[in-house]
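$ run holo --ligand "RRO" --emit tokens
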Amino acid sequence: MDISTDLCGIALDGPVLNGSGTYDALAARRAFGEALDRDFPFSAFVSKTITGPPRDGNPPHRLWETPSGMINSIGLPNPGLESFVSGDLPQLVGLPVPLIVSVMADSVEGFVTLIEAVAAVEGVAGIELNVSCPNVHSGLIVGEQPTETEALMKALRPLTSLPLIVKLTPNVANPENVALAAEAGGADAVSLINTLKATAIDPDRNRPWLGAGGGGLSGPAIRPIALAQVRIVSAAVTIPVVGMGGITDGESALEFILAGARVVAVGTENFRDPAAGIAVRNGLSAALERRGFASLAEAQASTLS
Ligand code: RRO
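-- output --
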């Protein structure tokens, strides 16, 4: 089964990526060594989101398991741009697959600094702009406003010829309006969905379980919402869509392709099984074959809108 594809010019040997922040490729390399490079679980790797200044992240607890899902309140801990560029980034460009670096800032100027620094590094294949984290409260959430999203993209687009992928929030009534704004501003692709705002209460302490009070829900519990949003967004825009939200196996990956996603990403399932990407890739080939598709491209083209 030929499952090779591309994402806005990035050639991929398969359509399964990781969701940003759900898989630590450097820790996995330390744990699994060369075996990991021989069968890396994803066809492109998306880094954890990086900010300009270093961040500690949210107070504990940061994770809460729900029926068929997980709430995270991680709060974007990261070493900051400078340390990332000199430390993790040179190792990440050495992974056996294309690297997409995820960045986030609370101002246009902050995004400019991040993009200029990351785009200058040889071997970076693309940049994902995270305008949708539910756990960072910096006033206006750019990705909730089409006008803000378009203005941001218009400011950033001239800075690099690398593909720019905008990570959309599901926490809006009409995600297609934000996607259309990203496209109008020059985005090469959109990825969705980020997590859904959620909380969990600890009745014994009579307060939220998560240290920051709430977080973002992910996992199979959100898959039907993700599928609906991928379907409506991919019907609205002409740029490719990276679909994610509760993918656990080949069948659920195929659901996203048929909903209009060009490629898919595995997130929460990586916490349960670090080799989930391999199972999803192999399962997708089998699922395509069972449905009589001759290739992934045929399934991508068969999408109903
Ligand atoms: O770090 C986080 O808390 C986080 C981020 Br940046 C994001 O984009 N989505 C999410 O669920 N958690």
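-- notes --
The CA atoms of residues 243 and 264 lie 5 Å apart.
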